[in-house]
Specification:
This protein has 24 helices and 5 strands. The protein is mainly α and 466 residues long.
């Protein structure tokens, strides 16, 4: 194989040669610059004649390079297949027009594009792409470290030690292609958390290391904390947003932590299609509960997309399905979200408050002791957290013992219904005053006991009259 390129694109050309060579593809490259009046040497002609395919790094520079022009003209004379690798949008230039090539114009997908090229080349001879030769890959990395001194600490640190330390890894400085080459190759050699973190910092700093991150997601399912570092460590460049969404979409199970950090940092710069994609990531696959920081994700999503009906519906479903019921801290978690959103003046949360009011109403009238206790837990939590929904919850509690549902409960189980009547009433009173829940419970016991005594007295009086 012969690789034609402009000297301006030598970094890309060297990267191509190292990657192809590591997979067993023999590539010949000439790095000399054309001098005025030069012609192709016999050696160069022989290499083109011997090649089964001529690759060309297609860019603005190669489109105007006389050296590339001579190489491609000779390749055509020899009936060689010429495959452009487009790193810039020059497909309509006369030098490359009507040639089927590889679209590598997006830097973040460059590594995937090259693997796709290799796959197609080997398919033509009915073979799979050979596994990477780790010795050749490591040798290529050391060569890269020599060419790019800024990358030497990263490359040699990973090859010979444990990589860059935390205080150094965030300051990766290098041109994109050498950095991307280094990060992806290092992960191929050492597919572990440490190199994934290096790729994560490379992505958030310069958009590099995408293929390594995708491989890490494939290995772990959700990309774990390295993906959080890559996508949520800072506001991303706008051109990186599509790649970030693609990485989040690849997670199975979803990485709620990375997703909410990404939304927090980047919601303001999403276009309409990206917004739709992110909202779909928040709501699908269906989150049955708030595990894995789903509630934090839901709160951040509602903060940044307050008019998103699907987010409001997700919160309503959680409340209706009892996700915030039962455990001692879950009612407080919900109440705290409602209180904080009110303090910040955030829209959208009124729908969540209404869903809680409806839920408490249903439980208060359920005729089920456990559900009534849960509804009181929500009243207590709203009072403790200062959530404005408290007024609505107290509205449901006051007078509930006079409803038809409660009267039906009294007819079925008068003792329990009477105890719970005092339980609801006294807790509602404390919610409006000092929030002394122990006092409310003790007074409930006392009032229920008094009611027993009163009922027994009435029975005794009836028996005496008879």
């Amino acid at each position: 194989m012969f690789l034609s390129h402009s000297h301006v694109d030598r970094r890309v050309a060297r990267r191509l040669v190292r990657r192809l060579t590591a997979h067993g593809v023999k590539v010949w490259i000439d790095e000399r610059e054309l001098q005025l009046g030069s012609v192709l040497t016999s050696s160069l002609r022989n290499q083109i004649q011997a090649a089964n395919v001529v690759l060309v790094v297609a860019s603005q520079a190669s489109a105007t390079s006389q050296w590339v022009k001579l190489e491609l003209e000779f390749a055509e004379q020899q009936d060689k297949a010429v495959v452009p690798i487009f790193i810039e949008p020059v497909a309509e230039h006369e030098r490359f027009r009507n040639r089927l090539g590889v679209d590598a114009t997006c830097p973040q997908t460059f590594a995937d594009a090259i693997h796709g090229l290799m796959r197609n080349l080997f398919l033509q001879i009915d073979l799979q792409v050979p596994a990477v030769d780790t010795a050749l890959l490591a040798a290529g990395l050391r060569e890269l470290a020599h060419e790019e001194p800024d990358l030497a600490p990263l490359i040699l640190g990973c090859l010979d030690s444990q990589g860059l330390h935390q205080e150094n890894v965030g300051s990766l400085q290098a041109a994109f292609h050498p950095l991307d080459e280094a990060l992806n190759a290092l992960f191929d050699l050492m597919p572990n958390r440490s190199t994934a973190y290096h790729a994560a910092y490379g992505f958030c700093c310069a958009g590099a290391g995408t293929r390594a991150l995708a491989s890490w997601i494939a290995a772990t399912g959700d990309g774990d904390l390295p993906l959080v570092t890559a996508l949520g460590n800072r506001r991303l460049e706008t051109v990186l947003i599509p790649t970030a969404i693609k990485l989040l979409t690849a997670c199975d199970p979803p990485n709620n932590h990375a997703l909410y950090q990404f939304i927090h940092e980047n919601a303001g710069q999403l276009d309409s299609s990206q917004r739709r994609a992110v909202l779909q990531l928040v709501t699908w696959p269906l989150r049955e509960n708030t595990d894995r920081l789903a509630d934090v994700l839901g709160s951040v999503a509602l903060k940044h997309f307050p008019d998103a009906v699907e987010i409001q519906q997700m919160w309503s479903r959680w409340i209706h399905n009892g996700v915030f019921d039962g455990k001692p801290d879950t009612p407080s978690t919900l109440a705290r979200y409602l209180a904080d959103s009110h303090k910040e003046g955030l829209p959208g949360w009124e729908h969540v408050g209404e869903a809680l009011r409806s839920h408490v109403r249903e439980y208060l009238r359920s005729g089920d002791k456990q559900k009534v206790v849960i509804s009181v837990d929500h009243i207590r939590a709203a009072a403790d957290q200062g959530a404005p929904v408290l007024a609505d919850l107290l509205g449901e509690a006051n007078g509930v013992s006079g409803t038809a549902e409660w009267n039906d409960w009294k007819s079925r189980d008068p003792a329990t219904a009477e105890w719970m009547r005092w339980y609801v009433r006294l807790h509602a009173q404390e919610a409006s005053k000092e929030r002394n829940w122990l006092r409310a419970l003790n007074e409930t016991e006392a009032m229920a006991e008094l009611e027993k005594v009163r009922q027994q007295s009435l029975r005794n009086a009836t028996e005496n009259e008879s």
